[in-house]
Amino acid sequence: VAPSTPVCEVPSTAMTGTVVQMSCKETEGSPPSEYQWYKNGVALLEKTGTGSARAANITYTMNKKSGTLLFNTVTKNDTGEYFCEASNGIGLSQKCSVKRMQV
């Protein structure tokens, strides 16, 4: 079964240095969907735990299975427009509407 349009929870504002968790969920996809988060239209990288310099700038943890995007300490750099996409390889992937978070 193709995924339904996911529901995204993105806070509109967040204080610098606080923990922020965004969530994305859809219920109809079978097999269960995987979730990809985007910021300002660019796919966010999944942190793999490698010590590369590029990964050192990643301040979040993205879980493709549960759809959560967790920022341990948000910074002004995390301000932007976020949305998530659900896909399970069947039918078209589905996106939620873009939501802006201001830090």
UniProtKB/TrEMBL annotation:
Its main location: other. PROSITE patterns: IG_LIKE. It is found in: Cell junction, Tight junction; Cell membrane. It comes from the Eukaryota. Keywords: Cell junction, Cell membrane, Disulfide bond, Immunoglobulin domain, Membrane, Signal, Tight junction, Transmembrane, Transmembrane helix. One of its GO terms (cellular component) is protein complex involved in cell adhesion. One of its GO terms (biological process) is leukocyte cell-cell adhesion. Residues 3-103 form the Ig-like domain. It is a single-pass type I membrane protein. SMART domains: IG (SM00409), IGc2 (SM00408). Belongs to the immunoglobulin superfamily. This is JAM2 protein. It comes from Peucedramus taeniatus (Olive warbler).
